[in-house]
Amino acid sequence: MGTTQLESVPEPKYWHLKNVLSEALDSEFSVGEILPNERDLAARFGVARATLRQALEQLELEGRLQRRRGVGTTVAPPRVGVAVGSEQHTWPGAAGDAWQPVDCTVAAPPPAVAGILETGRNEQVHTVRRSRVTHGHPVAAELLYIPDFSVPDLSAIDAPSGAARARAVLRELQRLELEGQDRAVELGSARAEDAKELDRLPGAPVLVVTTRFFAEGRAAAVSVATYRADTCRLTFGDSGGVEIHHDPERRAS
After folding, report:
1. Alpha-helix runs per DSSP H in 124-241
2. Where are the alpha helices (DSSP H) in the chain?
3. Which residues lie across from 222 on neighbouring strands?
4. Considering the entire predicted model, what is its pTM?
5. pLDDT in tens, 122-139
6. Which own/partner pairs from 4-9 qualify as long-range (CB within 8 Å, at least 24 positions apart)?
7. E-state strands within 136-204
């Protein structure tokens, strides 16, 4: 390949490089193909490696590239469309829920979650881990925090640990009358545990959807779901539900 020099432009150099790289991805590379290393790419475009990294990070955020452990940077497939969360007035684990339970442990939640649930600082809650796969690809990982007062008869259920215990906790939670729920979405960075489950690198951009479920006048459960930011574009419908649409021409703002 020849060397392509960037012309002087008013926009930031990394942003111009991002656009040039995007055109190259469309014309020279196919889905899943591994890009040349940073040194070769920086030499080709006549930029510093720091500028190149900024451009690559932006393309990763836009869903054009993926960084994979032991593989390198590859051209990403088109975004996948999935529905996020459940309909209003439906508990997690109800019929039609696309999430799969993985495990259930008992531990003190993060301080922010404890504040929402109004539990004591070191009070333990049931922590259900669930995962979501769409078209064979992991798209989200969830931690669902459920305090004892929301599942008072759980001790009477003879369920082992792991996924079976998680399903038992969710069944007991559904005995409560759900009064409502709300959601908040923010951009974050993948923790090591979530990154491994989502086949991402630690620190990769993710979308964090926090859902509060209300019963008996208080927060009865809290869901913290982590979605791959390179896979998702969020829109909000009239029902309050969140959907992720596949549209490679339109990007999340």
Report:
1. 163-173, 192-197
2. 13-28, 38-45, 49-61, 111-117, 163-173, 192-197
3. 145, 212
4. 0.68
5. 899 999 999 998 777 788
6. 4/44, 4/45, 4/46, 5/45, 5/46, 6/45, 6/46, 6/47
7. 137-146, 180-189
